[in-house]
Amino acid sequence: MLRRVVARLRQSIFWALLLQVFYSIRSERQLVEQIDYNLLFRWFVGLGMDDAVWHHAVFSKNRARLLSSAVAQQFFSEVNRQAKRFMSDEHFTVDGTLIQAWASQKSFRSKDGPTMTTVRASAARSAPTRRMH
After folding, report:
1. Predicted model pTM
2. Pick from 49, 63, 54: which is nearest to 9 by CA?
3. End-to-end CA distance of the chain
4. DSSP character for 127?
5. Helical H runs in 23-69?
6. How far is CA 82 from the centre of its chain?
């Protein structure tokens, strides 16, 4: 009986981690907060409307154990099996809309040439000024 409860808890927490990835929830605290008030999230992880949500430390303390569990292995092996036809050894594709740029254009420094800020500053200095009456 206890094994089934633990297995169900692991599965629910794993589904919660998937929600965190799918909805780009930045922290376990925010994830727990979302699950606490979002009925769809509660349903997805298998919690009832009145069930208590786990403490955020449950995720950080059990992350390695969860990802090496049978539930995670079955999930990832099934995803891998279904995605085989889309995989290639010749190239790698990334959806750029999912990648956020943490550096601004002003802090960008090219290895090949001057920075964007330097280019803009030199262009502004060399531009002729005109007076309009």
Report:
1. 0.58
2. 54
3. 89
4. S
5. 28-37, 39-45, 57-67
6. 21
Would you state the structure tokens that stand for residue 19, as one six-digit string?
Answer: 């929600």
Residue type present at position 130: R
Residue type, 30: Q
Domain ranges of the chain: 2-68
By CB neighbour count within 10 A (0-12 exposed, 13-18 middle, 19+ buried), where does 33 fall?
Answer: middle
- Taking phi over 0 as left and psi of -120 to 50 as alpha, with beta for the rest, 82 belongs to alpha
pLDDT tens profile 56-101: 888 778 777 877 878 788 888 998 899 888 888 887 776 666 555 5
Per-residue tokens: 44? 């997805």
Tell me, what DSSP letter sits at residue 99? P
Residue 46 falls in which region: left (phi positive, over 0), alpha (psi -120 to 50) or beta: left
Q: Are 38 and 8 in contact (CB under 8 A)?
A: no
Q: Is the dihedral of CA 54, 55, 61, 64 positive or negative?
A: positive
User: For the chain, how many residues are written?
Assistant: 133
Distance from chain centroid for Cα 92:
19
